[in-house]
């Protein structure tokens, strides 16, 4: 008689193998979720920063536009007061004209501080200085009651300087 002894291998615990596979899948899934959450956080931070920068740029552009509007308004006020001085010369009108010129320079300095084109501002300020010299000549002629000289100065010196200042002021946008 032959006795055959078979040795059986111990049965693998199927549940522990499946459990290991599930553990690996679960860990991989957790890592993927963490990665997705980190990517979403990064996207949110980038979006927030972009919005913040856009807000800063809008605020800066608004400040520049307001400064340029004040400068253009002051130039218009100077021209109006120049005409008024020709019709009704008085120390009050002359002082208001001087104040309008000072307001224009102050507005341009605000624009310069906010980062406006320095060359354009320098050109407008330089032409405005020429305008102020010409206007002083014209106001002096008006004060002397010399309407011929006032008209000549107005059409020659003042109008030329004013048009340069106005064209420079139009560039301030």
Molecular shape: rod-shaped
Q: What is the CATH domain class of one domain?
A: Mainly Alpha
So how many helices? Answer: 4
Strand content: under 5%
Rg from Cα? 39 Å
Instruction: Give the end-to-end Cα distance, rounded to a whole number of Å.
Output: 113 Å
Give me the count of strands: 0
Give me the secondary-structure category.
mainly alpha
Reported for the largest beta sheet, the result is: none
Mean pLDDT: 83
The stretches of 5 or more residues where confidence is low (pLDDT under 50) are: none
How would you classify the quaternary structure? single chain
> Which range best describes the helical content: under 10%, 10-25%, 25-40%, 40-55%, 55-70% or over 70%?
over 70%
Which fold name fills CATH's third level, the topology of one domain? de novo design (two linked rop proteins)
CATH architecture of one domain: Up-down Bundle
Order of helices and strands: HHHH
């Amino acid at each position: 008689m032959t006795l055959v002894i078979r040795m059986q291998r111990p049965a693998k615990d199927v549940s522990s193998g499946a459990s290991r596979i599930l553990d690996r899948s679960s860990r991989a899934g957790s890592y993927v979720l963490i990665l997705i959450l980190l990517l979403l956080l990064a996207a949110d931070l980038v979006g927030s920063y972009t919005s913040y920068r856009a807000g800063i740029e809008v605020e800066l552009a608004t400040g520049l536009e307001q400064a340029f509007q004040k400068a253009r308004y002051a130039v218009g006020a100077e021209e109006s007061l120049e005409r008024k001085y020709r019709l009704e010369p008085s120390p009050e009108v002359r002082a208001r004209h001087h104040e309008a010129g000072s307001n224009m320079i102050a507005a341009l300095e605000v624009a310069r501080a906010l980062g406006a084109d320095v060359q354009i501002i320098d050109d407008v300020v330089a032409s405005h200085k020429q305008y102020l010299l010409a206007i002083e000549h014209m106001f002096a002629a008006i004060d002397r009651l010399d309407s011929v000289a006032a008209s000549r100065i107005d059409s020659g010196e003042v109008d030329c300087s004013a048009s340069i200042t106005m064209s420079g002021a139009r560039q301030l946008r």
